[in-house]
Specification:
- With 277 residues, the protein is of the alpha/beta class.
- It has one domain: NADP-dependent oxidoreductase domain (TIM Barrel), CATH 3.20.20.
- 40% of the residues lie in helices and 15% in strands.
- Strands 3-4-5-6-7-8-9-10 form an eight-stranded parallel beta sheet.
- Helix 1 packs parallel to helix 2, helix 2 packs across helix 3 and helix 3 packs across helix 4.
- It starts with 9 loop residues before the first strand and ends in a 15-residue tail after the last helix.
- It is an enzyme of class 1 (oxidoreductase).
Length: 277
Amino acid sequence: MLSSIPPAPRLSLADGADIPQLGLGLYKVPATDAARLCRDAIDIGYRHLDTAAFYGNEREVGDAVRAAPAPRDELFITSKVWMDDNGFDTTLRAFDASMSRLGLDRLDLYLIHWPVPSTDRYVDTWRALIRLQQEGRVRSIGVANFHTHHVERIVDETGVTPAVNQVELHPWLPQAAVRAFDAARGIRTEAWSPLARGRVLGTPLLDDLAAKHDRTPAQVVLRWHVQLGNVVIPKASSRERLAENLDVFGFELDADDLAALATLETGERTGRDPDDD
C-alpha cells in the first residue's frame, strides 16, 4: 500500500474560500470506477474532487465523500450544470438534482459547464448560481470554458465576478491571455486536460526534463501548472497514478525549464472552442 502524500496547498479565492491547488478530475471516469478512485484519492491525500452532472458519476463521488475519514470541511467538491440545463429555472432544478445524487448538504464550487453562446442563456444561468450562493447552498461559484468576453458580459450584467474559470490549459495551449485576464480580476484559473489528454507526454523535451529532475513527464507538466499558479485537476485511473500526480510539490522547475516549456505552445485544443457552440 502506498503511503499518503501531504495534501496540495490551498489557494485563496476572492470570495474568502480556498481551494486545493491540485485535485482529481473525474471526466470520463465510469461510475463503476469513480467511488474506488475517490476513496483511494482521499486516502492518499487528495482533498479536491471535480465532477459534473454530465460525467454521470456524481452519486459515486458523493458516496466516497460521505464515507471518507477526512472531515467534510477539509474536502472540496466541485460540480457543474450541463449546457442543456442553462437558464435560470432549469439551472436551479439541475442543482437540486446534482445535490440529490451527491447526497451532500452543501457544495464547495458550482460551475457553468459551457456558455453555449448560440442559446444566449449563460447570463441567466449565472444569475441562478448567484442565487444559490446567496442562499448558502454553494460556497463558491464560477464558470468553465468561458472566453474573456463571456466573463466580461456576466460581470457587466450582474456585478458578480466568478471565483474560478476552468478552461482547457496545457503546454500546447497555455492560455496566457486568459490567465492574465483572470489574475487581474481576482479569478483563479483552473486547468482541465492539463496533460492534453496525455498526448503532450510524448514530447522529447519532457523526457529530458523528467530525467533532469528524476521525475516523470506527467509530473513535470503538473509542476509547470503549479508554478504558473493554476489550479489543476488531472485524471487518473489507478492508485499509483493518483499518487504520482499529487507528488509534485517537492521539486521546482528552473527558469531555463520554464523557457523551454514555453516553446511547446501551438494553440492546439483537445476539446472544442467555447465560441463554436
